[in-house]
Each structure stands twice: as C-alpha cells, then as structure tokens.
Amino acid sequence: MGTGQQNLRLYERKGLLDPQRTEGGTRRYSEKDLDILRRISHLLAQGLNLSGIRLVLSLEAENISLKNKLDRQEAKPDQQQNTSES
C-alpha cells in the first residue's frame, strides 16, 4: 500500500485510525485497520479531504450498525415461528 509513517500518524491524530500498541509503543495494525487504510487511500484518490473521509467512514460504520440491527430484528419473527412450530 505504501502509506508513509507521517500519514499514518496524521490519520491517527485525526481519529481515522486507532491501531493497537505493543508495550513498547509500537503500532500493531489489524486486518480491519488495513481495510480502513485502503478505504482512506481510495477516498483520497477520489478527491476527499480528511474531514470528508472521517464523515464517510462514520456514516459507513453507522450504516453497517443499522443494517445489523435490522437483520437481527428481521430474524426474531423467524426464531419465534420456528419455536412455536416445534
């Protein structure tokens, strides 16, 4: 991906990224962090600034959360129906 250290620090300061750290303070990037970095890179290439990217990432996370909540609610009637049929 080739993201420089200064950019990584900037993304962290702007709240776009929050990697885990070792006891010595070294950043440890998870697969989720790498996905976020790829998304940031894509959005930068489309011309968004970091404030816009923060908004996009926040809205995407909210959308996923709402979709998961809706999926759980839609699954409840199926579970109740299966229980009453038994």
From TrEMBL:
**SMART domains in the record:** HTH_MERR
Q: Where is this region: Disordered?
A: 1-27, 67-86
**Biased composition, Basic and acidic residues: where in the chain?**
10-27, 68-77
The HTH merR-type domain extends over: 1-59
Q: Which PROSITE patterns match?
A: HTH_MERR_2
What keywords appear on the UniProt entry? DNA-binding
Q: What is the lineage of its organism?
A: Bacteria, Bacillati, Actinomycetota, Actinomycetes, Micrococcales
Q: What is this protein called?
A: DNA-binding transcriptional MerR regulator
Name the Gene Ontology molecular function terms of this record. Answer: DNA binding; DNA-binding transcription factor activity
